[in-house]
């Protein structure tokens, strides 16, 4: 039996370059249904990744603004640099398979909290907690999880402050609350973590002596971080802008802070 519009569809498929042997209307309808379903899944995934990437940009902008604001009032910026990354599809799927989670877009959104990642590199250790406090104070930010690997370093020696925050993203289809992983660390912690990651992370390196040496490096770095902070605090305590000229210069320096 001929279906209405079948001839039109056939011409369409012919023009679309489908080989003759698959131009059977029933088979084509089946293929189209399959393609439609696959595209729905792909578009859902694309929407999720768009929300994730937008949330990442929102967090980055918030951090840049609070950094400039801090500089205008304290004459130094707590944030040295910011890096952002979207987790690759392969890493997302590997993580879900490791955890035995069925790979659906819904599960990705629910269970994978580090699709959007923001890494904040600070000069000093106390800056990390200042930045955390200033970020969490934002009314639209919800803190879902906090792991302080500075207070309690990982056995590897890894140190950083990890936050999972949730931020509303306003999209044409409505508001989508989206999770972002924020990792805060000092320049020194980042130096260690970056090199250690290359050398070891997630590889089964079983040489205890080498692992111990890596951990010792992390401890030396942590002591240097403490010492650098103590020096800065002492220097600040000695600064005494009593003279009027010094006070004016200090205000001019604040006024000169670039607005980004
Ligand atoms: P993941 O499955 O790796 O995401 O583990 P998790 O969800 O338990 O999170 P965790 O708090 O362990 O933090 C994971 C992230 O922190 C990693 O993606 C790394 O960026 C970083 N990290 C954690 N441990 C180490 C480590 O020992 N060395 C280095 N270089 N980075 C680490
Ligand atoms: Mg993680």
Give short descriptive properties of this protein.
single chain; 260 residues; alpha+beta; Beta Polymerase, domain 2; five-stranded mixed sheet; 8 helices; 5 strands; 56% helix; elongated; binds guanosine-5'-triphosphate; binds magnesium ion
What does this protein structure show overall?
This protein is of the alpha+beta class. It has a domain at 37-187: Beta Polymerase, domain 2. Helix content is 56%, strand content 18%. A 5-stranded mixed beta sheet has the order 1-2-5-4-3. Helix 6 packs antiparallel against helix 7. The longest helix is centred in the first third of the chain and has 50 residues, at 25-74. The mean pLDDT is 90. The structure holds guanosine-5'-triphosphate and magnesium ion. Magnesium ion binds at residues 114, 181. Residues 114, 181 line the site of magnesium ion.
Number of helices: 8
Helix content: 55-70%
According to CATH, what is the class of the domain at 37-187?
A: Alpha Beta
Q: How does the helix and strand content classify structurally?
A: alpha+beta
Short description:
This protein is an alpha+beta fold and 260 residues long. The protein is 56% helix and 18% strand.
Q: What's the SSE blueprint?
A:
Elements: H1 6-15, H2 25-74, E1 79-86, H3 89-98, H4 105-111, E2 116-122, H5 125-136, E3 142-148, E4 161-171, E5 174-186, H6 187-199, H7 208-238, H8 244-255
Bound molecules: guanosine-5'-triphosphate and magnesium ion.
């Amino acid at each position: 039996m001929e279906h209405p519009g079948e001839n039109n569809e056939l011409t369409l498929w012919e023009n679309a370059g489908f080989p003759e042997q698959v131009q059977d209307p029933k088979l084509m309808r089946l293929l189209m249904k399959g393609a439609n379903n696959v595209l729905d899944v792909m578009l859902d995934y694309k929407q999720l990744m768009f929300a994730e990437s937008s949330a990442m940009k929102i967090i980055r902008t918030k951090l840049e603004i609070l950094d400039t604001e801090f500089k205008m009032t304290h004459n130094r910026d707590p944030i040295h640099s910011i890096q952002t990354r979207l987790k690759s599809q392969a890493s997302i799927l590997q993580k879900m398979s490791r955890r035995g989670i069925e790979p659906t877009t819904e599960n990705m959104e629910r269970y994978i909290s580090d699709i959007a990642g923001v890494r904040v590199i600070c000069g000093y250790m106390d800056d990390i907690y200042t930045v955390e406090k200033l970020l969490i104070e934002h009314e639209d930010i919800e803190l879902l999880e906090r792991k302080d690997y500075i207070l309690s370093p990982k056995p590897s020696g890894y140190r950083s402050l990890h936050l999972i925050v949730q931020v509303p993203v306003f999209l044409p289809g409505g508001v989508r609350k989206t999770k972002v992983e924020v990792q805060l660390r000092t320049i020194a912690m980042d130096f260690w973590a970056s090199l250690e990651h290359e050398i070891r992370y997630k590889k089964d390196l079983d040489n205890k002596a080498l692992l111990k040496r890596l951990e010792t490096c992390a401890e030396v770095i942590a002591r240097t971080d403490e010492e650098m902070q103590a020096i800065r605090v002492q220097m600040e305590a000695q600064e005494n802008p009593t003279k009027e000229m010094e006070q004016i210069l200090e205000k001019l320096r604040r006024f000169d802070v670039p607005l980004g």
